[in-house]
Automatic annotation (TrEMBL):
A motif (HXTX 1) lies at residues 40-43. It catalyses: a 3'-end 2',3'-cyclophospho-ribonucleotide-RNA + H2O = a 3'-end 2'-phospho-ribonucleotide-RNA + H(+). This is RNA 2',3'-cyclic phosphodiesterase. Signal peptide: none annotated.
Length: 206
């Protein structure tokens, strides 16, 4: 049996509640908001994996975490994401491209935070351990950005709104929380949306 797997940092209950409260700030926005219990920071998205692979993922995560200590994450902004970028292969022919890219609907509403060196180090170490264990996963080709998906934009509905009437999402926030563990998670797609289950929670070394 195949399972849809990722490794994440889950958020404290008070942080999740505060972020969900921000969802009420833009009631007119055509967005499918993330459920409170699903708010997280993805470290590595693995995709479909067998039961045997899950065992190897958990072992690699445990070995990685044993080399890292708890750290703090600061969240400082809510905005549209990800950033609109022109693919490198297309940078030589920009005629008309900038306007086209600027008018693309955003895909998500993001909560962005700082990416402390401890987080980058943990993630890089985790990717190396997974690779050494023979686990295939999706690597960030544009560089890792610490973020939480607060909601996903409904593209068709967004396009029906006149450009000058589209809501701005640019909110400065100040939230912080300690990262004391990472979790190996399973995502199950159901009629009401994705449901996440913690398969293993691994504490960072004190």
């Amino acid at each position: 049996m195949q399972h849809r797997i990722f490794i994440a940092i889950n958020l404290p209950e008070d942080i999740k509640k505060t972020l969900v409260d921000y969802q009420l700030k833009w009631p007119e926005l055509p967005v499918r908001w993330t459920k409170k219990d699903n708010l997280h920071i993805t470290l590595v998205f693995i995709g479909y994996a067998s039961d045997e692979d899950i065992g190897r993922v958990c072992k690699a995560a445990e070995e990685t975490v044993s080399r890292h200590q708890p750290f703090l994450i600061n969240l400082n902004r809510i905005c549209y994401g990800p950033p609109k970028k022109i693919p490198y292969s297309e940078t030589k022919s920009l005629t008309g491209r900038r306007d086209e890219i600027a008018n693309r609907p955003p895909r998500m509403v993001w909560v962005k935070g700082e990416t402390p060196k401890e987080l980058s180090s943990l993630r890089e170490d985790l990717e190396k351990s997974l690779s050494d264990s023979g686990i295939r996963f999706e690597s960030e080709d544009r560089g890792f950005t610490s973020h939480i998906t607060l909601g996903r934009v409904r593209t068709w509905e967004w396009r029906q709104i006149e450009p000058e009437e589209r809501p701005e999402v640019e909110e400065e926030i100040s939230l912080s929380f300690p990262v004391n563990s990472i979790e190996v998670m399973e995502s199950q797609l159901k009629r009401g949306g994705a449901e996440y289950t913690i398969l293993e929670s691994i504490k960072l070394e004190k």
